[in-house]
Fold each of these.
Amino acid sequence: MIAFENVTKKYDNNQIAVNAINFEIQKGEFFVIIGPSGCGKTTLLKMINRLIQLTEGTIRINGKRINGKRISDYNIHELRWNIGYVLQQIALFPHMTIAENIAIVPEMKKWETTKIQQRVHELLEMVGLEPAQYSDRKPNELSGGEQQRVGVVRALAADPEIILMDEPFSALDPISRTKLQNDLLELQRAINKTIVFVSHDMQEALKLGDRICVMKDGEIVQIGTPKEIIQNPVNDFVRKFIGVKEDALNVFTIQQVIEPFVEAKHQSYVIHSVGDQATLQAILQQLAHYECLAVKSEEEIIGVITRQSMLQFLANHSTERGEAND
Ligand code: ADP
């Protein structure tokens, strides 16, 4: 649905920020772009809503080209209104209320007042901000995490097909950050939008992405699901990027080792449980005592981790790391 064909961006100082790249993002996909600072992530993202003009190549959305020196099948307003955008710095208008901030694009699209009010109400509820309490407040009366929540739903307000997010949670404290990541995943499951998300944090990418695109020096090094990237990194750069944390066990998430909960098989010995946000390090400590752990999300068992599956995972992973150190 978003297709990049030989896309290059060269800045005026001759800096090539993005170099002849080709790839496609599917409809409804959560696509994370990751890589070190300066590798071209933001440039790539901003070319999608034409905040940055590409130098060569073509970008198509649903088959229609968005750019071209002379031709574009979209007008710029149509394009921007149909693409939500969330930035790292909370860019709410300080003199407007929360409700007014959320209503900006629906207002521009000339929605009816009652429809806008309903939409604002629904969106605030969606991210756990009680509308009666929050609608009339000004941004400076909200915490950083709450403001960012408003930033996220504002991008959804006019029901865009695509949402671009540029390190939206990186300025937040770790607790708000985890909470917002979880909310976003839930939201994505409910609304099934195409999300293009820039991050420099592998743990965040592994947690959120359906697919991850690893970039280096303006080029794509690897695109794959979290599992593919972990199990088959294409080169040392990707291997090192995955293992960038001092403790690799903290990089992987429960999703990589969880297996389905089959009651008949496991119920006799699942007594202990861990939350779905536990690190592998924490799970390993638990598995030293228990054969099998139930993984719970909001008090519901979503799967199990057995000593055997964990050992298998570690064995596979240690081979990869061993090779990387050769
Ligand atoms: P990232 O988001 O991965 O940190 P960017 O897309 O912001 O990377 O930048 C990619 C490269 O392009 C960097 O080397 C950066 O210095 C350069 N760059 C970004 N914006 C401009 C600009 N407006 N003019 C010149 N060079 C730029």
Amino acid sequence: MSDTNTQRLEFKSELRQVLNIITHSLYSHKEVFLRELISNASDAIDKIRFNSLGNDALLEDNKDWKIKLAADKDAGTLTISDNGIGMSREGTIENLGTIAKSGTKDFLESLKSADAQARPELIGQFGVGFYSAFMVADTVTVITRTAGNALDGVRWISDGQGEFSIEAVEKPSRGTDVILHLKTEEKEFLEEWRLRQMVKQFSDFIEHPVVMDVSREDADKKKTIVEETLNSRKAIWLRSKTEVTPEEYNAFYKQISNDFNDPAKVIHYTGEGTTEFKVLLFIPSHKSFELQFGEAKVGPRLYIRRVLVMDHCEALLPPYLRFVKGVVDCSDLPLNVSREMLQQNPLLEKIQKNLVKSVFKALEELRTASYDAYLTFYKELGSILKEGLSRDWTNREQIADLLLFESINTDPGTFTTLKHYTDAMPAEQKEIYYLTGEQRTQMEHAPVLEIFREKKWNVLLMTDPIDEFILPSLSEYKGKQLKAADKGEFNEPPDESAKRPELQKKMQPLFDALKKYVADLKDIRISTRLKESAACLVSEEGGVGANMERILQKLGQADGTTIGQRILELNPEHPVVLSLYSIFEKDSSDPRIEQFGRLLYDQALIAEGSKLPDPLGFAKRMNDLLVKNAV
Ligand code: ADP
């Protein structure tokens, strides 16, 4: 081939950084490179197999599907070949050099801030794919060709630094050879035993044969070379549950999920009814790269009689279960229709219902039988699961049972469930109380909780930002209403509430005067929830609370006006409120009324964790008081 064909191109800058990390800081789990390359080869075979349905010409009579490993000790190379779909010149440039997967930028950012120990895990989640070849090779050559003309082959070479070169070559057979020029210290990957072991460990269940030429001695001690298949090829989801070891499940999960960690739970069964389908799903223990940074795809892989039809079949799982990975293999679906048509097949809806049920059952089992594992899962993925509360009305109760919350009656870091909460409710308590906020430490001391502490009623502390958004859908649990501890009025028992209107009436002129000074309030009233503090802020029932206001501010969607809709509650028994009232009674134009009133409002804002609108004014009022006190 003439040199005019050769192009030197630069890796996209984000990819360069990823490559740099792979070559210089990823020392553990190096052997995953083989898993990744075999997996790519297997995907490539699945693709041509699917695309050639009804179009035999694409096959070029080359459909003895296989992935071949060839170790050349003299040259120091390991080659992984497949007769899959291959890549065109443009495809090669795009796939192996210029397109970094979505989310890479955010991933790199978080990698910088992560501590050294967490890094390999993060990189693992990123899913290094093809580029993992550079963990063990100092140069990688890819020779590839799509179905068509033997002269249309492409050779891609790179040392994984900044650039790669690409040129046209002749390639007799369709498919891809990935040739790894192994680093001197990685020559163990040329050993037959090592390759066998790695294939067995990571790629045993790959449907296509992974083969290698091995030398065999026959009875007369004559050596012959035979092609041996290294993997057992049994699609793991078709095997019976009792035959599959936990290690095999874990290895398969890692293969399909790009996760270094074992899954939290395996779901493996045969669905029956109008149709038979095999299900192998996994509930991860951690948030995957895609969920954290990239575009998370919804749904498991769909196979039809062992042919991979879709990497993510959205019709099979709702978006709020997008963390579930796995495989569904159904024999009663048509193979020769487009993916779009297939997604509308009514059978899929039935299977979806069945899968959702099985996921809930598995989560419930995990929660009851392996609580620690459930907690790890919940902390990472619970906020995604919660989305289901507003999206899946039929399973709302099931999701509600899976929720965990801290509460004022549980120690920090320990959780309660709605069931536990309601079981422990005293008879006089009618509603489930909660408080939303950012941090337990701050929320615990909120003045609005004083009445609950006194009554020993529990209050759920909701600290996940999504809680604010799902609460409207979770308005009740088993017939008990959920009620914000800082909204609306706290309904006292009748004997206590009897004296309130009278007090309110008495103090109303003071409140009216205060409203002039703290104009951005909806109302000022006597509090029924304060026991120790002088003041607190609450919202109207159904109004925007302080936490929601802060969230909206962060999202750039609040203009600060909602805070103005708050209600200032004053404790009529508190000495400050009492002395303020007596100052007012003596002289309603005393300047201390404004000073006290504003300070009470500021205090209430600070106590709920909100920002003071006028911090300098607050400091000045405080200082004036201190000075007066000092003389
Ligand atoms: P991923 O496999 O997660 O998409 P990779 O970095 O491993 O990411 O591969 C990037 C892309 O390169 C693949 O999506 C595929 O399109 C292409 N590719 C890699 N290996 C092969 C192969 N053996 N045959 C055909 N295409 C391949």
